[in-house]
Write a structure and sequence with these properties.
about 220 residues, mainly beta, seven-stranded antiparallel sheet, two-stranded antiparallel ribbon, about 35% strand, extended
């Protein structure tokens, strides 16, 4: 079959609908860490859809003149999420308290010490959803809060970072130059992510293409 090299504008519009970067949502599950994250989620203005890679091993000389590489472990790199800081500093307080939950200072001032808590006391889910403009349609608006499947879902791809926690909160620069909104960026580490696909505006939870790898990863004392 001959390859078609030229398309009309109508054909291009019919065959390709680009995804836009400005339609996304970040959800930090504060219930797992006994914190209210509703305002924090609203203040997220930039995020990264996670990627992954493989660590490779090498075999030399099994076949003459050939060096073979093979995957040994899947690697999930950290994810950065940027937040606006409100005038009540709730965003800063939220992440400072979260970091303090990971490694609290104990004892009296001057003689205090610190120790790390078990991961199941500070790890939670972070969900990054990428959707499209049709979520503005009245019939597809989110009708209630909750987890996946409790409302009418727009077409989207949803990444759930499992056992996530903040590993870095960047310094916040301030100056006497022209005023701007204060921002911060938080780096999240996690064990792995799962992916859910909602392929149509009217998809329900039982139509999600769920990942083949689903497992419980709760770590703590026996």
């Amino acid at each position: 079959m001959a390859r078609k090299l030229f398309y009309s504008t109508r054909d291009l519009i019919a065959q390709f609908s680009p995804s836009l970067t400005s339609y996304f949502d970040v959800y930090v599950d504060g219930s797992s860490i006994n914190a209210d994250s509703s305002k924090i989620n609203f203040m997220a203005y930039e995020a990264v859809i996670p990627g992954s890679s493989f660590e490779l091993g090498q075999v030399f000389g099994d076949r003459q003149g050939i060096t073979e590489q093979y995957p040994t472990k899947r690697v999930y790199p950290p994810v950065d999420v940027s937040f606006y800081v409100d005038s009540d500093y709730n965003v800063i307080k939220f992440f400072e308290d979260w970091m303090a939950t990971i490694q609290p200072n104990l004892g009296k001032r001057g003689t205090s010490y610190s120790k790390f808590n078990y991961p199941n006391t500070y790890e939670t889910k972070v969900i990054i959803s990428k959707f499209e403009r049709e979520f503005r349609d009245k019939s597809n608006r989110l009708s209630s809060e909750g987890n996946s499947g409790t409302y009418s879902e727009p077409k989207q791809i949803k990444y759930t970072l499992l056992n996530a926690y903040p590993s870095n909160v960047i310094s916040l620069p301030v100056s006497y130059s022209q005023s701007d909104v204060l921002r911060t960026t938080v780096t999240f580490n996690y064990d792995l992510y799962s992916v859910e696909y909602f392929n149509s505006p009217n998809s329900s939870s039982n139509e999600i293409n769920k990942p083949s790898e689903e497992r419980s990863l709760v770590r703590g004392p026996n």
